[in-house]
């Protein structure tokens, strides 16, 4: 069954309608390997886009391009450190690998879980916080109604669009986003596109 078109709902917000007219939403790439995407989110934590891309490339080289729980757990910790992962991030990707081996955290395995259940399940893994869990919901599970206010670019984007760049409390951001339901993920992708432009 086709997903309902989010545009008519989002266009009811005149600010967002103007963004839709001038931007394409931030892309959602197809995800073949859920575990790899989770590792990418861990690598990306607190790094600039360029640094994260460089580290990711070196880590994937060490894993011979095959990012699985087994390849991560078989890899030398020293080699992963030399690729640019901090000791803590090596722990985090190993924690994620063990969790994926023990539980089905793929799209299929989480299909019946609510967004809140997915966040609870993922944040049990040391090294995965709410931001990473939200990225997993949007990019891997393709959930339509996620508002990741832990993401700095989303907050700054909302502030630029709705408050002339001045700071807003998250409670107000949630109110601004309320009319976007049940398409807050798509709205988020438009806000990213606008913020990155």
From TrEMBL:
One annotated Gene Ontology cellular component of this protein: protein-DNA complex
Domain of life: Archaea
UniProt GO molecular function: alkylated DNA binding; DNA-3-methyladenine glycosylase activity; DNA-7-methylguanine glycosylase activity
HhH-GPD domain: residues covered: 43-196
Keyword set includes DNA repair: yes
Any Pfam family hit: HhH-GPD
UniProt feature coiled coil, ranges: none
Keyword vocabulary terms for this entry: DNA damage, DNA repair
GO biological process terms held by the UniProt record: base-excision repair, AP site formation; DNA alkylation repair
Keyword DNA repair: yes
Similarity comment: family membership: Belongs to the alkylbase DNA glycosidase AlkA family.
Name of this chain's protein: DNA-3-methyladenine glycosylase II
């Amino acid at each position: 069954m086709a997903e309902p078109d989010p545009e008519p709902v989002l266009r009811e917000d005149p600010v967002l309608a103007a963004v839709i007219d001038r931007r394409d939403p931030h892309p959602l790439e197809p995800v073949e390997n859920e575990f790899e995407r989770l590792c990418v989110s861990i690598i990306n934590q607190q790094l600039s886009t360029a640094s994260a891309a460089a580290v990711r490339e070196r880590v994937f080289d060490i894993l011979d391009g095959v990012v699985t729980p087994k390849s991560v757990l078989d890899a030398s910790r020293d080699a992963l450190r030399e690729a640019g992962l901090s000791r803590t991030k090596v722990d985090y990707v190993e924690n994620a690998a063990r969790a994926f081996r023990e539980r089905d955290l793929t799209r299929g395995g989480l299909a019946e879980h609510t967004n809140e259940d997915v966040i609870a399940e993922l944040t049990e893994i040391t090294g995965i916080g709410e931001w990473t869990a939200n990225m997993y919901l949007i990019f891997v599970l393709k959930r339509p109604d996620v508002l990741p206010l832990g993401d700095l670019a989303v907050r700054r984007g909302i502030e630029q669009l709705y408050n002339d760049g001045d700071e807003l409390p998250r409670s107000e951001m949630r109110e601004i986003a309320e009319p976007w339901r049940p398409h807050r993920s798509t709205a988020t992708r438009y806000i990213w596109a606008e913020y990155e432009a």
